[in-house]
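Posting this for the archive.
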Amino acid sequence: MKSQDKLKGIEPDQYYCIGSKKKIPNLAIEVVITSGGIQTLEIYQGLGVSEVWFWQNRELQVFCLENCEYLQKNNSQLLPNLDLDLLVSYLGDDPFDAIWDFKAKIKRQ
């Protein structure tokens, strides 16, 4: 995100533009160490970010922007084929081992 977005008080841990390069990302991901994660939804809403994920206490929360408000969902609307439970099962693992195991599971599907 550009410095102008930082001025609005938000800088996600990760962000992605899906489909094409945009000034505002489609997906923002925040790793919440302390409180305050979900309170940033209003800022993301003002920016028009389609989807925001919060990772906190080994749980992933997905919020999708619909009719100008965020609704919590069980799946990503931007990445509907992504198995979030499978993804979460690898978070926190050794990255090398997680990638090899994930590739093996994908090949079996």
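The helical segments are 3-7, 41-47, 84-90, 95-108. The chain has two domains: 3-74, 79-109.
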